Structures are given as structure tokens and as C-alpha cells.
Amino acid sequence: MRLTPQQLDRHRRHILLKEVGGPGVQKLRAASVSIIGAGALGGPCAMYLAAAGVGAIEIWDDDTVERSNLQRQVQFTDADVGHSKSERLAARLRAADPDLTITAIPCRFAPGETPTGAILIDASDNFETRFALNRLAHASRRPLVSGAASGWTGQVSVFASGIRPGAPCYQCWVPEVPPTAEACDEVGVAGPVTGLTGSAMALEALKLITGAGEPLIGRLLLIDGLSGAARTLNLKQDQQCPVCKV
Ligand SMILES: [Zn+2]
Fold first, then answer.
1. Is 242 a member of any domain?
2. Which terminus of the chain faces fewer neighbouring Cβ atoms within 10 Å, N or C?
């Protein structure tokens, strides 16, 4: 896929990176991702991937924009309140780059659904969706970029159990719904922490697509907004995992 003069201009700052370059931008334009969740993580993640020229982006979300979302879901404006999140985010991405193929799917992801992206991105806010997406990613041998944010902390990892032998899946890390699981409308979340987390998810997808650097496979990035610190933990495959060890 040759880049047009406009695309060379648009992506110049990525082309200047030796780990991306022209071939990396061509890979980005040929890539496809499915983002599950068009909220506080999916918004920044999708906007950075569209800006990077990811050719096909699918956005799944059955919610509508509420005024209380605007504190962190900066992809939306006051005029979007009451409208479909997936459709409004898709319109935002099309406006960023009309060459991209952007598909809004205003449905809730559930087992049996078939996202088409070669990379799955979990920007959802509930464990039912996270477990179902993890099973799909493992069974269909696709990488899963996973993120979560709550309070002042964010976490990001890449699960590649169906692709890389010995790599853990999401359920190796979180075997069951934690007893302390609370939705962010019950505990609150610092808006910029969701931006950091969603941007880190876009960065992991960009690395997977271009081959730059080391994706967070088998590692969890923890961002602590209050202390201003970030660290990574190693994750291990669970030898009893019902998803990736059967
Ligand atoms: Zn597993």
C-alpha cells in the first residue's frame, strides 16, 4: 500500500521514528482493531489510533452519552449527551481522517459476538465483558490489549495466550470477579488517569502493529496518579487456568 503525499505529510512525525518509519505507517494503514467500549479508555485509545492512521477501527458500545461522562470522556461534547457513544466516537474519528474505515456497532459485546479486528482492545467497564473477550482472544489467537482505571490508578497489559507459548491470559491474572469489584460510578475516577490509561493502550496497539519495542505481554503496567509513579509487574500463566490451560 503506497502512501499518498497527504498521508506522508500527515504521518511525518511517525515516519521520523526509526522504529516506525514509512513501513510502520503502511502497516498501521493496513491494520484493523476492534475497541470494546467507547468511554473513558476507548475514547483516547481510539483517537490516537485514528490519528496514527489505523485503517479499520470498529467501536462497540451500546451506551448513550451522559452528562456525568464528560468529566473524563473528552471525545464527547455537551451536544453529544443522549446520543450513541459508538456513533458519536465514530463520527469524531472520521472527522480526524476521512480515509479510515470506521464502524460503529451500537451493541453490547457478549459471548458469540464476532468483532472483526485483528487486535482486540478491552476498554470495557465490567468483568463479564472482560472474561468473554479474553476467551474470544485466546480461541481466535488474537492479541488482547486490556486496560482499566479506577480512583487514581490505571493498569494496562497485553494478553497473547493464543499466540505466544507460556504467555498468560487475562483470566490467569484475574481468575474470577474480585469481591471488591465496583463500577467507577460508585468509586469515582480522576479524569486524566483514564486519559493516561487509554493512551497507554493505544501505544501498546501501535507497538503490536509496527513491531516497535516490547509490548506488555506477560507484564502489567501500573500507573499511580497520586504519587506520580509507574511500575510494571510480571504476570504468570496459571497452570489451572480454565481458558488457556485446557
Ligand atoms: Zn489463562
1. no
2. C
Residue whose C-alpha cell reads 468511554 in the numeric block: 39
* 242 CA → ligand 1 middle, Å: 7
The model's pLDDT over 93-125, given as tens digits with 9 standing for 90+, comes to 999 999 999 999 999 999 999 999 999 999 999
Which residues are within 5 Å of ligand 1 (an ion), measured at CB? 169, 171-172, 241, 243-244
Query: Does residue 131 lie in a domain region?
Result: yes
Residue at 126 is within a domain:
yes
Residue 41: name the closest of 230, 203, 208 by CA: 203
The two beta strands, 153-159 and 101-105, are unpaired
Ligand 1: distance of its center to the CA of 83 in Å? 37
> What range defines the domain where residue 189 resides?
31-234
Q: How far is the CA of 240 from the centre of ligand 1 (A)?
A: 8
Residues 156 and 146: their CA atoms lie apart, in Å, by 6
Average pLDDT, the chain: 96
Whole-angstrom distance, CA of residue 159 vs CA of residue 236: 11
CATH number at residue 190: 3.40.50.720
Distance of CA 39 to the CA centre of its chain: 11
